[in-house]
Design brief:
The structure holds 2 protein chains of 2 kinds.
Chain A: H1 3-11, H2 36-50, H3 56-61, H4 65-75
Chain B: E1 2-6, E2 9-18, E3 22-24, H1 37-44, E4 48-50, H2 56-71, E5 80-84, H3 95-102, E6 110-114, H4 120-132, E7 139-146, E8 161-169, E9 176-182, E10 190-191, E11 209-211, E12 214-216, E13 222-223, H5 225-246, E14 256-259, H6 264-273, H7 285-288, H8 295-304, E15 313-321, E16 325-333, E17 337-338, E18 342-343
Helix pairs in contact in B: 5-6
The chains are: A mainly alpha, B alpha/beta.
């Protein structure tokens, strides 16, 4: 599982945010477009691409995109 | 693994009752501090809902009267009523008993309530199919729905509906194939915390707390949306595939695959993961919202009336949610009677 590909998949869930603005160290809850509704798209992407079922707490406990990547990786 | 098969029973007809009064979610203000109403409608696929001062049983009884008329069944013939809801008329007695009297059904009538939500229609169907398979009961009504009138709350996701599915004993009929599952570790993913025996009602039950940008008191349904979302998109494909594998058929051969109407984002992902064409997966949540155990029969009544009555039609129906609880059923209909939607 590649971090770069994960960031790309993560960035695709945003409609208004430029993908270039999203990096491994981005604190994703600070992105203007982030809401509990965008979170659902991220959850769906993780199920579809990685067959991993995240919980709300996993999103809660992650700060950066890389944190989330590591949580998904640990559940693979 | 809870796989079951019951023969000799068929679905003769389906009807649904909803309030006439519509609430449009785009007109709601201050939905959440987290998102606005148009984002909500886009993500959930719920534009409007039917909500008014009716109980679940009011809606079910109206739908039942219409269906019996359309089927030309007399009330004396009904030998069982199963009422599936999490919004009963009273804490006790069981609402099915009240329905027996209000509808003037025979006193020689089997009547019971089942307290399940989104998975409830499939569970209710298995209860009646199991009871009827031996021929002891020839005609029965499955009522399923939720009108969340107990603790009024303008939750933009949920609409009111009550449905009726008429079942008939028919020797030689292929009947129903089921798969069921339960994960009670997720009991608090969708919960009304107070008002039952575990947490009695106190003055504190009425105090509002903020959860994800919305105010809730402890008598209103609260949901861990993200947990429920992941549960739905992982469980629904698994149970549909599991049923098909166990009974050795291809789920893609079904004419229609009807999912509980949870929210559009969830249902679209389930459809995508199962690689089903959109035209096989009808949906009614845009106009009716999430109607709990009513959502599968309500989808059939509002989306398939006029399309399936005159030919044999293969259905797969899958309910999943509060409990956490899930169930999937496969059956075939022929000469199905679908009543016009009852609006009251």
């Amino acid at each position: 599982m590649e971090l770069e590909k994960f960031i790309e998949n993560f960035a695709e869930q945003f409609e208004e945010t430029d993908a270039n603005e999203i990096t491994a160290s981005t604190v994703f809850k600070d992105i203007d477009e982030w809401s509990s509704l965008t979170a659902l798209s991220v959850l769906a992407m993780v199920v579809e691409e990685y067959e991993v079922a995240l919980r709300g707490d996993d999103i809660e406990n992650a700060n950066t995109v890389e944190d989330l990547f590591n949580i998904v990786k640990a559940k693979l | 693994m809870a796989f079951l098969s019951f023969k000799n029973t068929r679905i003769a007809g389906i009807s649904a009752g909803v309030p006439l009064k519509k609430i449009c979610n785009l007109e709601l203000e201050g939905l959440s501090t987290d998102y606005n109403s148009s984002d909500f409608v886009e993500a959930t696929g719920v534009l409007e809902r039917r909500v008014d001062d009716y109980t679940t049983s009011d809606l079910c009884i109206a739908a039942a009267e219409r269906l019996l008329e359309d089927l030309k069944w007399s009330k004396e013939e009904i030998e069982a009523v199963v009422f599936v809801s999490q919004n009963a008329d009273y804490i006790l007695p069981a609402t099915a008993c009240i329905i027996q009297d209000k509808m003037g059904l025979s006193k020689e009538c089997y009547a019971e309530d089942i307290a399940l939500g989104c998975s409830g229609w499939v569970y209710g169907l298995s209860t009646l199919a199991g009871l009827m398979a031996g021929g002891g009961i020839k005609k029965a009504l499955l009522m399923a729905g939720d009108a969340k009138r107990r603790a009024t709350f303008n939750n933009p996701l949920f609409g009111f509906a009550g449905t009726v599915t008429a079942l008939e004993y028919k020797e030689g009929d292929e009947g129903f194939k089921f798969h069921f599952g339960t994960d009670g570790s997720g009991y608090d993913a969708i919960i009304i915390p107070d008002g039952g025996s575990r947490n009695q009602v106190t003055m504190d039950s009425f105090k509002e707390e903020m959860i994800n940008g919305k105010a809730y008191n402890r008598l209103q349904t609260r949901m861990k949306g993200m947990d429920v979302f992941t549960f739905g998109i992982t469980t629904a494909p698994k149970t549909v595939k599991g049923l098909a594998k166990h009974f050795d058929f291809d789920y893609k051969d079904a004419d229609y695959v009807i999912f509980h109407q949870a929210n559009m984002k969830m249902n679209n992902m389930i459809t995508k993961l199962l690689k089903l064409p959109a035209e096989k997966v009808p949906s009614c949540m845009y106009h009716f919202g999430n109607t709990s155990s009513a959502s599968i029969p309500l989808t059939i009544v509002t989306q398939l009336r006029g399309k399936v009555e005159d030919k044999p039609t293969k259905f797969i129906c899958c309910g999943f949610g509060v409990g956490l609880s899930w169930g999937t059923v496969a059956f075939e209909t022929e000469h199905l009677v679908i009543s016009e939607l009852v609006e009251m």
